[in-house]
Amino acid sequence: MESALFLAHHFAIAYLFLHFIPSPQPLYFLIAYHALFGIYMGLIFSPNHLGMPILSPENGLDYIHEQISTTRNITPGIFNNIFYGGLNYQIEHHLFPTMPRTNLKKARVLVQEFCRENAITYDETGTLQAFKEILQQLGEVSHISLATHLISDL
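RE: above sequence
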C-alpha cells in the first residue's frame, strides 16, 4: 500500500505540473526541488551518522550498545527541533525506530539516564561541532588513504 501511494503521489505531482504549467518550467522546478531536497536530507542525516564508528558484523556488541555508539544526537533547541524534524534525537530514533518523533524528546531523558547508569557514552553535540567532527574524520581517513596509495605505488 505504501509503495502504491508513493507512486501515486509522484505521478499526481508530475501530472499537475505538466498539465497546468507551461513547458519547460515544470522540469526546471522539479530539478531544483529534488536538488534542494537532497541537500536538505544530507544536512539532516550527515551530522547524526558521519564521523561515528563503523562496526563490523562481528563486533560483539549488543543491540543497545551498537545503536548508541554509531550515532549522535544534535543538541535540542527550538531551531534544531524544527530543522531536524525530531531526528536530532537520532540515538532514541535508532533505539526505538517506530516511536512517534514527538515522544523522542521524552525518551531522551530515559536513555541518557540509562547510559549514565551503565557507563555508555551518549554522544550529543551542536550542529557546528558535529560538522567539525565529520571534517576531522574525513581528513584523517583521506590522509590514511593517500598514504596507503603512495606506499602501494612504490
